[in-house]
Amino acid sequence: MRDQAREQLAQSGGGGQIGRCALACCFALLLLGGGNLFGCRAFPRQTAGVTRVPEKHSVRVENLLLVSDFKLSKKDPLVLELQELRERVVATLKLPEPRRDVMVYLFSDQETYRAYLAQLYPGLPDRRAYFVGTSEELAVYTFWGNRIQEDLRHEATHGILHASLAGVPLWLDEGLAEYFEVPGSPVGGMNGDYPQQLAMATSNGWRPDLDRLESIEEFTSLQRIDYQESWAWVHYLLHSSPETRQELLAYIVDLRDSPQPERLASRLEGITPAYSDRFLSYMSSMGISGSAVIRAAHGE
Ligand SMILES: [Zn+2]
Q: What's phi and psi for 271, nearest 5 deg?
């Protein structure tokens, strides 16, 4: 599988998108303060008889340290893409210098990856990749498969954010990861069928609610549409106007030192009371309208 995936990477030039993640494929686990969401446990890396993390080879990309049991050169398309991702996340969000390293554990196969996570966090939903933040370590776990590029763009974004900021609200963490997982230049491409899915929900009576999103604290509470809405809010904030972009950047500045600054919904309401209506209009301007949904649904 690894060689096959490498071949796909080479064919795509390293920046191509291999498939689309139709479902939210990651959860960021934030186990701050010692890590007690699943019980406070040390990482059993060297214990005999248990699966361990990869450790034979490593490649550093700024504060991202990729470790694997297979050789990965600095020129590998995967490594180069991570470097580019880091640069675009830092530049777009004007992030400060990172305070911590991010370990990126690349397992050779899915079986070993699953076994490791199962022993570390029994009962964890089966996903292709995870980001785990603890007071000891920021770590991305994934395996060499045909979606590794997309998964790494998403998970590494979590790592890059948490390495520079005191905290990242759950919705923003996922919204930004969904935003930066989309390849291509410039940033801001549509993420799969999210526009159509949101439009369909809107035509069925769903309405965006940033205040509600900001209230969600457990990653297991996030529904698929919450990922989509978070992505759309990030897109709106970064692209709808210089004022909304500035508001998001100011919020991120506050997150450098405070994990819970004044909520963004309150800030937006302060400058534009009808910000939710503007958000809906923005979605429509992206072609996310009820009629577009119906066409898309019938077209598939
Ligand atoms: Zn995520």
A: -95, -30
- Using the mean position of ligand 1's atoms as its centre, give its distance from the Cα of residue 49 in Å: 31
Quick: pLDDT tens for 159-174. 999 999 999 999 999 9
pLDDT tens-digit map of 62-116: 999 999 999 999 999 999 999 999 999 999 999 999 999 999 999 999 999 999 9
Give me ligand 1 centre to Cα 57, in Å. 26
- What proportion of the chain, given as a percentage, has pLDDT over 70? 79
* Beta carbons of 129 and 106 less than 8 angstroms apart: no
Give the span between the Cα atoms of 97 and 48, in whole angstroms: 38
Could you report the per-residue pLDDT of 7-35, keeping only the tens digit for each?
333 333 332 222 223 333 455 555 543 33
Looking at the predicted structure, is the pLDDT value of residue 290 above 60?
no
Tell me the pLDDT band of 156, cut-offs 50, 70 and 90.
very high
Question: Whole-model pTM above 0.85?
Answer: no
Q: What are phi and psi of 48, to 5 degrees?
A: -65, 140
Q: How far is the CA of 154 from the centre of ligand 1 (A)?
A: 6
For residue 228, report the distance from its CA to the centre of ligand 1, in Å: 12
Q: How far is the CA of 109 from the centre of ligand 1 (A)?
A: 21
Taking alpha carbons only, the member of 168, 181, 289, 272 closest to residue 235 is 181
CA distances from 121 to 39, 80, 118, 127, 223 (A): 9, 31, 5, 13, 21
What distance in Å separates the CA atoms of residue 202 and residue 257, rounded to the nearest whole number? 36
- For 102, phi and psi rounded to 5 degrees? -120, 120
Residues with Cβ within 8 Å of 244's Cβ and at least 6 positions away in sequence, in order, are 236, 237, 238, 268
Cα 212 to ligand 1 centroid, rounded to whole Å: 18
Distance 158 CA to ligand 1 centre (A): 7
